[in-house]
Write a structure and sequence with these properties.
Layout: H1 8-24, E1 38-46, E2 67-69, E3 78-83, E4 89-96, E5 104-109, H2 110-115, E6 122-130, E7 140-147, H3 154-164, E8 167-172, E9 177-185, H4 188-202, E10 206-209
Parallel strand pairs: 1-5, 2-4
Antiparallel strand pairs: 1-6, 2-5, 3-4, 3-6, 7-9, 7-10, 8-9
C-alpha cells in the first residue's frame, strides 16, 4: 500500500465533511466550469526543455501540438484562448497541470502561443468549449513545495499530514520535481482558504483539481 495515499474510508469522510461545510458555511461566489464559462488573466507558454516529458494526463508533451496546462480545469477539456491584445484565438486541449507561478492562469504549448502571437506572456480570455464526462464530483487539493529529491519532501509532508489529515507526495513530470498535495476539498473556495494559510509558511500554494491518479 502506498503510504502517501489515504484510505478510501478516510477520503470519503473528508469529502463528506467538506460538502457539509460548503452547504452550511459561507455562500461564496461559485466558479462555473461548464461549457461557455470563461476566465481572464495572464497566459504564459512552455516548450523546451519540457518537450518529450510526461504530462499530468499521461500524454507526452509535444510543444508543436495545441495543448495547455491549467490548474483546475478537467484534463481533456477543450478551451478557446483569445489574446486580448490582438483578438487572435486558438483552441487547445488541457492535458497538464500548471502554471505554478502566481497570477498566471494557463500555460500554453509553444505552438498554441505562436498561433495567437504570444512571445512571452499576455492577457487572455479563456472560454470552455467542451469538458469530458465526469465519473464523480470534482474535488480539489492544494499543492505546495518544489523538491528535486523525494526524500526532501517527507519532513514537511509529515507535518502537513498531522494538521490537515491528508498529505501525499507526487511527481510532476513537466518540471521533474516532487510536490506535496494537501487535503481534499469539495469546493475550490474551501481549498483557497487552505492555500492562503499554506502560502504564508510553505511558499507558493496552488489549488489544483484532483486527478484520478493523485
Amino acid at each position: 500500500m502506498n503510504p502517501d495515499r489515504p484510505s478510501l474510508a478516510r477520503v470519503a469522510a473528508i469529502i463528506m465533511a467538506a460538502v457539509l461545510l460548503a452547504v452550511t458555511g459561507c455562500k461564496g461566489k461559485q466558479t462555473s466550469s461548464g461549457a461557455g464559462a470563461f476566465q481572464t488573466g495572464i497566459a504564459s507558454w512552455y516548450g523546451k526543455p519540457f518537450d518529450g516529458r510526461p504530462t499530468a494526463s499521461g500524454e507526452i508533451f509535444d510543444m508543436q501540438k495545441l495543448t495547455a496546462a491549467h490548474r483546475t480545469l478537467a484534463l481533456g477539456a477543450v478551451v478557446r484562448v483569445e489574446n486580448l491584445s490582438n483578438h487572435q484565438q486558438v483552441q487547445v486541449k488541457i492535458n497538464d497541470r500548471g502554471p505554478f507561478v502566481a497570477d498566471r492562469i494557463i500555460d500554453l504549448s509553444f505552438a498554441a502561443a505562436q498561433a495567437i502571437s504570444i512571445a512571452g506572456i499576455a492577457n487572455v480570455r479563456l472560454e470552455i468549449v467542451s469538458t469530458p464526462p465526469k465519473r464523480g464530483a470534482d474535488v480539489y487539493t492544494v499543492q505546495v513545495g518544489n523538491f528535486s529529491d523525494r526524500m526532501q519532501a517527507d519532513p514537511p509532508r509529515q507535518e502537513l499530514l498531522q494538521k490537515y489529515g491528508t498529505a501525499r507526495v507526487i511527481f510532476r513530470g513537466r518540471d521533474q520535481s516532487w510536490r506535496i498535495l494537501v487535503g481534499i476539498y469539495a469546493t475550490e473556495e474551501s481549498a483557497n482558504v487552505v492555500a492562503s494559510e499554506l502560502n504564508q509558511r510553505y511558499g507558493p500554494a496552488f489549488v489544483v483539481l484532483m486527478d484520478e491518479d493523485n
